[in-house]
Amino acid sequence: MNPYLSYKLKILSLFSILLVVYIHAYTFDIAPDTGALTDQKSYNSFIQDFISQGVARVAVPIFFAISGYLFFLNFIPSATEYLKKYRKRFQSLVIPFLLWSLYGILLYFLLQLAPNSELFFKNRLIRNFDVPQFFSTLLQHPIPYQLWFLHDLIFLVLLSPLIWVYVRYLQLPGVLLLVLLWVWKFDVSFFQTESLLFFSLGAFLTLRPYVLLKVHQSAAATSALPGWLLLLLLKTWLSHTDFEPVLVVQLLHKIAILVGLVATWMSFDKAFYQEVPDRESPLLTLASYSFFIYAFHEPVLTIFKKGLLYFLGSGDLSTLLVYLLAPLFIIGLSVALGFALKKILPGLYAIATGGR
After folding, report:
1. Helix or strand or coil: residue 13?
2. CB atoms near residue 9 (< 10 Å)
3. Fewest CB within a 10 Å sphere: which of 61, 104, 262, 279?
């Protein structure tokens, strides 16, 4: 792979996982596309909607697009190639999924042994699980709920022969059809259309390598980021004024994600295009812990948030401070623990991160 493109994908993955942590830092109940569910709209809900329901919503599409691109990069379809890919993804997806899901169950079980723990764990008392509940939690509804991404990715990898044929022969019209299904929210039970769309987009981009290799330094690249942020401000404002019809806000939400992908990609070149830094650069070092941050941050972030809100109260200022600061603490904790585990138990770290 082109060294600059490799660097770009690693840093964008890091950027995306930091945004995912902020999505999960939300201190309100949330409605998809339209933001915070609260009768008292305020500066607090506006800021959280702008970040978590705006800026951060490019993160998951970036992850799936990168995953699809890397899976099909230099791909030659054959039974041998698919078996090779399946073996590799079993180590990098299935084993980490099972390990981190089991970790979530064990963590909750240990925390629920503490006195008065029912104040914080009202839904899942692990000690009361029967066998079907245990396996349902382990495989279908993991406590670290961010594992849905790996869950979807595992199914997409299994369907990769069909996805490759679809993308190879339908090309751009096939991708545009998936865009329509995504906008329409045509999901199926075992994965989301969003996952299929952006994984397929990554596959399609392997057929158009010049698209990703182009370095953007034009006036359009300069205006892409502020244009996207203005669009997000409009969408957030409309959602906070209970704009009717809601369908307009939902459509703006999807458009903003697509615009955000382009803006993020182009803005990276404006900010970072240079000689590819050596492997010891701080950003690349931090990026090497991206998967560990992803896998570890929940349910620890939720537990930490609940604890802070229990002591600080639920006022606008306190909940906003928890929203802004709790993710920074959890990200720092994730990196510190990842670094320690990598030093002390490198074999376990390699298994937990799928060899990343």
Report:
1. helix
2. 19
3. 279
The residue type at 314 = S
Where the chain has pLDDT below 50, the residues are none
Q: Could you give the angle at the alpha carbon of 17 between the alpha carbons of 46 and 350, nearest 5°? A: 160
* pTM across the whole model: 0.90
Q: What are the residues whose beta carbons fall under 8 Å from the beta carbon of 254, sequence distance 6 or more?
A: 33, 182, 183
| Each residue's pLDDT tens digit, 8-41 | 999 999 999 999 999 999 887 766 666 665 557 8
Cross-strand bridge partners of residue 35: 31
Q: In whole angstroms, give the CA distance from residue 140 to residue 147.
A: 10
Domain boundaries, the chain: 3-352
CA-CA distances (angstroms) from residue 185 to 143, 190, 244, 250? 25, 14, 19, 11
- Here the tokens at position 294 are 């992803």
Q: Which residue has the tokens 């930091």?
A: 18
Q: What is the distance between the alpha carbons of residues 106 and 24, in angstroms, rounded to a whole number?
A: 21
Name the 3-class secondary structure at 35: strand
Residues 19, 21, 24: CA angle, nearest 5 degrees? 115
CA distance 329 to 280: 23
- C-alpha 195/C-alpha 42 separation (Å) is 32
DSSP annotation string for 203-241? HHHHT-HHHHH----SHHHHHHHHHHHHHHHHHHHHHHT
CA–chain centroid gap for 135, Å, is 24
* Strand ranges for the chain from DSSP E: 30-31, 35-36
Residue 172's alpha-carbon distances to 9, 166, 262, in angstroms, are 22, 10, 16
How far is residue 326's CA from residue 310's CA, in Å, rounded to a whole number?
14
pLDDT at 123: 66
Q: Which residues contact 332 (CB under 8 A, 6 or more apart)?
A: none
The residue type found at 112 is Q
- Which amino acid would we find at residue 164? W
Residue recorded with tokens 């594992």: 147
301-334 pLDDT tens trace: 998 998 898 888 888 899 999 999 999 999 999 9
